[in-house]
Specification:
The complex is a heterodimer. Chain A is an all-beta fold. Chain A is built from no helices and eleven strands. In chain A, the strands form two sheets. In chain A, strands 2, 4, 5, 6, 9, 10 and 11 form a seven-stranded mixed β-sheet that branches. A four-stranded antiparallel β-sheet of chain A has the order 1-3-8-7, with no helix packed on it. In chain A, a hairpin with a 5-residue loop joins strand 5 and strand 6. Chain A is globular. Chain B is mainly beta. In chain B, the strands form two sheets. In chain B, strands 2, 4, 5, 6, 9, 10 and 11 form a seven-stranded mixed β-sheet that branches. In chain B, strands 1-3-8-7 form a four-stranded antiparallel β-sheet, with no helix packed on it. Classes of the chains: A mainly beta, B mainly beta. The interface between A and B is medium-sized, with 21 and 25 residues.
Chain lengths: 121, 107
């Protein structure tokens, strides 16, 4: 079955850039049924959708993050990545990669293990 | 953006209890409403999609209902593994949005 494995640093300094990668196994990022997604959980708050990317490279971002955000695909490595610039303490959260399967179930049906990212000097 | 409001934000219950969580959307979303359960320190898991369809492997003590703007998740006969936080999420349009969560803890 499809599994998602995240990698990336857990500590980022203020004003620096966060880079996280999600490796897909048991499936392919060039599936036309799936949007490859990032979701975060800030401490004491609820889940927040960050954005997703389709196999053709089309991206959809949360408007509040759009100016700082880039999500990309690497089909040769079967990976997708998140890049969030100008990090602040407000970006401290557990970051999850997830598969959003279009139509059936039209939901986030597979999740990575999560990466706790702390923004601190 | 479509705002999702869950209530209550927390509740206390016992094993065997029936629990109901509600989710309200700021505008009509047809049946494009999903529910997730998140246990502490774990990733969320999909419970229910399209309002009332159980995700694979989810036991039938979970049920969902609603349409338009008002939705409900019901857990019949709460089990120990159900003490967790529950989130609703709309997939009607981007930006995709989640409710603030409902934490179910032990009474």
């Amino acid at each position: 079955q499809v599994q998602l494995q995240q990698s990336g640093p857990g500590l980022v300094k203020p004003a620096q850039t966060l880079s996280l990668t999600c490796t897909v196994s048991g499936g392919s990022v060039d599936s036309g049924y799936d949007y490859w997604s990032w979701v975060r959980l800030p401490p004491g708050k609820g889940l927040e959708w960050i954005g997703y990317i389709y196999y053709n490279g089309n991206t959809y971002y949360d408007p509040s993050l759009k100016s700082r955000l880039a999500i990309s695909l690497d089909m040769s490595k079967n990976q997708f990545s998140l890049r969030l610039t100008s990090m602040t303490a407000a970006d401290t959260a557990v970051y999850y990669c997830a598969r959003f399967r279009f139509l059936d179930p039209d939901a986030f049906d597979i999740w990575g293990q999560g990466t706790m990212v702390t923004v601190s000097s | 953006d479509i705002q999702m409001t869950q209530s209550p934000s927390s509740l206390s219950a016992s094993v065997g209890d029936r629990v109901t969580i509600t989710c309200r959307a700021s505008q009509a979303i047809a049946s494009h409403l999903n529910w997730y359960r998140q246990k502490p320190g774990r990733a969320p898991t999909l419970l229910m999609y399209s309002t009332s369809t159980l995700a694979r492997g989810v036991p039938p003590r979970f049920s969902g209902s609603g349409s338009g703007t008002d939705f409900t998740l019901t857990i019949n006969s709460l089990q120990p593994e159900d003490f967790a936080t529950y989130y609703c999420q709309q997939s009607h349009r981007t930006p995709l949005t989640f409710g603030g969560g409902t934490k179910v803890d032990v009474k």
